[in-house]
Amino acid sequence: MRSTAQIKSHPIHPILVAFPIAFFTGTLLFDVLAMLSDKPNFRDGFSVTAYYMSIAGMIGAVLAAIAGFIDYLYTVPPESSAKTRATKHGLLNTTTLILFFIAWLLKRGEHNSYYLITGLELVGFVIMLFAGWLGGTLVYRNQIGVDPRYANAGKWKEERIHTSDKEIEVANTDELKLNQMKLLHINGKRIVLAKTENNYVAFDDRCTHRGGSLAGGAMICGTVQCPWHGSHFDVTTGAVKAGPAKENIATYPVNERGGKVYIVL
Ligand code: FES
């Protein structure tokens, strides 16, 4: 599903994470060199380089975290395996940031210990590697931030609606092409509006297997396929047509009148 923090469909978080990864790695390397060096001039040079790399890494990490947190809140499907994975990813990266920050504070003190500082950075580096692995899974398997195109069905569509109405206007009747979907956030609830050969339909965005976003899948001939493990659902009845999902998805009444499409909740 398309990232919320994006520029022309390019997610900002993966662009920014390269900076803390590079600078924190550099920080550790230069502090190791400083620790191993027996020449005071070299040692001081390595230490100063590591000190400023650490600052750059922390700034990059905070910026990456802001973009990542926006996607965590608004893009990663709620109550899904990806949400659990994204929570671990965020907490581990926060731990890395804290460890490098503590190491940086220690460097500012008068009696700093190379062993303690480098040890903290090494632990932070290893945690960062594991967090990065989880981040890769979120992108390459869970497709967080992927903007899908399929079957001439047009670009990703998404809208947030806050209302107390029971019948909610969600689109113009000519807004979607055949087999195109639109992800709606109605008072925080994720619902997919889709156009079939016969009419408009609405169904829960959440796959009943592990919570994949159906809006990020593919729809054809009245069937939507989950992008994570391939479950098929009938978009009119919500019935499972193929597993691994076993439970049906919820569907919602849709009315069309006066050139507008309405969902009844
Ligand atoms: S989450 Fe597994 S098939 Fe949808």
Alpha-carbon Rg, integer: 24 Å
The residue fraction in helices comes out at 40-55%
User: From N to C, what is the helix and strand string?
Assistant: EEHHHHEEEEEEEEEEEE
Which descriptor suits the 3D outline?
Answer: elongated
Sheet of most strands: 5 strands, mixed
Total helical elements: 4
- Determine the mean pLDDT: 91
Distance between the termini: 24 Å
State the domain count: 2
How are the strands of the largest sheet arranged?
A: 3-5-6-7-12
How big a fraction of the residues is strand? 15-25%
Unreliable runs: none
Number of strands: 14
Task: Give the helix/strand class.
Answer: alpha+beta
The unique ligands bound to this protein are: FE2/S2 (inorganic) cluster
